[in-house]
Amino acid sequence: MATVIKKGWPVLLELSETMPGPPPVVWRLITDWEHQDDWMLEASDFVVLSDQREGVGMEAEATVRIGGISTRDRVKVTAWEPEKHLGIAHEGWVSGSGDMFLTPLGGERTHLYWREELYPPVGVAGAVGLTAFKPLMYRIFKRDLRVLAALVRAATHH
Q: At CA 57, angle to CA 96 and CA 33, rounded to 5?
């Protein structure tokens, strides 16, 4: 119980979308760090911090604004399986992990499953606040996937 009071609890978001393009196109778009704000509309000012631009250990940061609250999110790549799995650790004000899994569906389509497990700052108060934001975050991330799908469509059928 003491751990819950001190740390709070995670907020889990799970989304999926069928992308109208093959895994290589989706992978290229989700790992184009400086252009992630083309589809992740709540984020801006992406900067790669490490010398490496791909693979486990790559580090970047961006400004994230949700519900009027803005924070700098530092991330580190924890899983890198090209065209299959991208995993990141959030190391900013909100900590946790994010994973995107790509599954080819054939016919130039890809299933994208996106999972975020986020731990808020300031214990229970932060957990209550982040939990209250969960429906808004879900809608924002769902919109992000629709925008990403449009970019995938454009890149696939140019």
A: 80
Q: Which residue has the higher pLDDT, 120 or 144?
A: 144
- The pTM of the full predicted model, rounded to 2 decimals, is 0.89
Q: What H or E segment, with its residue span, contains residue 117?
A: strand 109-119
User: Could you tell me which residues are beta bridge partners of residue 73?
Assistant: 62
Cβ-contact 108, 156 below 8 angstroms? yes
- Please say whether the beta carbons of 78 and 99 come within 8 A: no
Tokens for 90, please give them: 């959030």
- Which helix (DSSP H) or strand (DSSP E) does residue 43 occupy? strand 43-48
Q: Report the C-alpha dihedral over residues 67, 135, 62, 124, rounded to 10 degrees.
A: 80
Structural domains in the chain (count): 1
SS3 153: helix
**pLDDT tens across 75-105, in order?**
999 999 999 999 999 998 888 999 999 999 9
Give the max Cα distance, the chain: 55
Where residue 118 sits, what CATH number does that domain have?
3.30.530.20
